[in-house]
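Q: What would this chain look like folded?
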Amino acid sequence: MLSHTPHSEHLAIALVYADDSLVVVNKPSGLLAVPGRGADKQHCASLLVQQMFADALIVHRLDQATSGLLLLARGPAMQRALGNLFEKRQVDKRYEALVHGLVSPSQGSIDLPLAADWPARPKQKVDYAIGKPALTHYQVIAYNHTEDTTRLALQPETGRTHQLRVHMLAIGHPMVGDGLYGRQALAGHNGYAHLHLHAQALLLVHPVTGQAMHWQCACPF
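A: My prediction, written as structure tokens:
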């Protein structure tokens, strides 16, 4: 494991898998996937992976607040090959989340177009006029009646910015610990340490070997 910057040294990134073509790591909540704007946002998952594999290039992103599996390519050619799999929706991404309220029915799909909420950036919103298609499937894993929360398995068909967070908010079940869209955001404070959204599994066919690859990492909450 590699430590993050001195400013957030409690964060670390764990190597899940690596070969000559690609790298998979487990990113903690709070760590940027790629550099942000400003000198204080240059340390990120891609930089930490490049300390291990100098040719590692980002293929997709996770929100800073989201934990879990992040895929990187070894070199530009593999970055294009893996990016093509994402564009063709040939990568199966599975998430686990904890949301407020008791979700009913216990399984379903959310098909709501999303667009940037420009006056409230970086927020996104449901927008039927100019929004891009976005589809999320969900399945209840467990209910917690005492805390009035639901643990969900989420499978996005598309990869829109903040898609899972906005879709769950749209059906009345914001994610626990979501400081941007959640209940604590409305109340002006965050009663939880982090967003309860975890990229739990990645499935794809290896562009070089043709082998079906499946990675998982345990949910931290």
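The chain has a mean pLDDT of 90.
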